[in-house]
Design brief:
It is a single chain. With 123 residues, this protein is mainly beta. The protein has one domain (12-51, 62-121): PRC-barrel domain (SH3 type barrels). The protein has one helix and seven strands; from the N terminus they run E-E-H-E-E-E-E-E. The protein has a seven-stranded mixed beta sheet. A hairpin with a 2-residue loop joins strand 5 and strand 6. The longest helix is centred in the middle third of the chain and has 10 residues, at 71-80. It is globular, with a radius of gyration of 14 Å.
């Protein structure tokens, strides 16, 4: 796990970047990171705060706001932070992993604490 210079450990989601490979807790490759959004625990709506660093802060014209999941789940993901995963394969669906489901980041691979079956699917 990455750590900051102050001696405190950063949450692994802070090291996640677009294009990284994502594997679940069983080691199965799920896909690649499409976007990362840091959490906003004080958000009172599902709009949250965006980070310009990821390059994915504003949706492209015609795109749905992220995360594209039912309202209750969206609010939870906005508060905790999330990674959107571009599913592996031509017809694969996209998934969302909350910040708490990011176990570790080593080189260009994100490892999750759960399996693909327990991730939230894009609607």
């Amino acid at each position: 796990m990455n750590s900051s210079g102050s001696g405190q450990r950063r949450h692994p989601i802070a090291a996640v970047q677009g294009g990284m490979h994502v594997v679940d807790s069983s080691g199965e490759e799920i896909g690649t990171v499409e976007m990362v959004k840091m959490g906003d625990p004080d958000a009172v709506t599902d709009q949250g705060q965006s980070s310009e660093e990821s390059g994915f802060a504003a949706p492209l014209s015609g795109q749905t706001e992220e995360p594209d999941v039912p309202e209750g789940l969206a609010e939870r993901l906005i508060r905790s932070g999330f990674v959107k995963i571009d599913g592996k394969g031509l017809f694969a669906r996209d998934f969302y992993a909350s910040a708490d489901e990011v176990a570790d980041v080593v080189e260009d691979t994100v490892t999750l604490t759960t399996t693909r079956d327990h991730l939230i699917s894009q609607t």
